Task: structure prediction
Amino acid sequence: MRFAIQSRNDPQSNELMERAINYLTNFGLVVDEERPEIVLSIGGDGTLLHAFHRYTHMLSEVAFVGIHTGHLGFYADWKPSEIEKLVISIAKDEFKVIEYPLLEVTINYQNSEECYTYLALNESTVKSPEVTLVMDVELNGRPFERFRGDGLCISTPSGSTAYNKALGGAILHPSLQAFQLTEMASINNRVFRTVGSSLVLPAHHKCILKPVKAEDFTVTVDHVQLLHKNVKSIQYRVAKEKIRFARFKAFPFWQRVHESFIDSDLKE
Ligand code: NAD
Result:
């Protein structure tokens, strides 16, 4: 089997990476940065986001697994002390692959046929270089609301525990084929009105954001932030592509939520 490792590049993650390479190659696995079948991310959730973006062009061929060298992460759920156990399971092919949905982000520009499409594992956010973001929100081709506020966050179910949660959005089980639109500090008074709640949209729905006056926007896709000029529209929907995680042990999602946000010593 071909494998690649993405390290957070701190001394502990790099040392663990060297050990993992030694163990895996001793078991006959081959390092292949170009066409890996399994990618080990060593660091934190951010490291797995980097690994995901490195291999977005071949998601159907790659399975990801994360080891945390800091605190327990949502994508990094193996402890460094478990590395040998993990390597043996990889070598013996003792894992199953689970697939979770992603978000497709398409940005169209004024006076141009060109558009850019990105895939997000966690979320995409839209903010304005001006103080207030003003955008029309269209759902399935129908006007829904005119948003005024700090910004909008459109997240995947896997990303619902990240930025979306900090904004008061709902936590979605990552197996749901859906995406979520969450407001960042909307202006709501007698003149301006937004729905206020997060919206969870199914796989066959589309959300389009259209600029009202300004045309330049700061758009993030996970950890990547870019200023897009002359934006005509930004379309969001559940992507055709999926992320594949290698699963070796049962670690129920709601237990992970409990351990991450409520109490790390889960009482049976
Ligand atoms: P990072 O790696 O330092 O991540 C920031 C924090 O988000 C870390 O604690 C990480 O464990 C956590 N995180 C990432 N993905 C998660 C997930 N799916 N569920 C639960 N927690 C998760 O920083 P980065 O490399 O810049 O990562 C970018 C991510 O940071 C973005 O995708 C966004 O979700 C998150 N973020 C969060 C906030 C916030 O909570 N206010 C603000 C900006 C960005």
Observations:
- The chain has a mean pLDDT of 95.
- Residues 11-26 form the longest helix (16 residues).
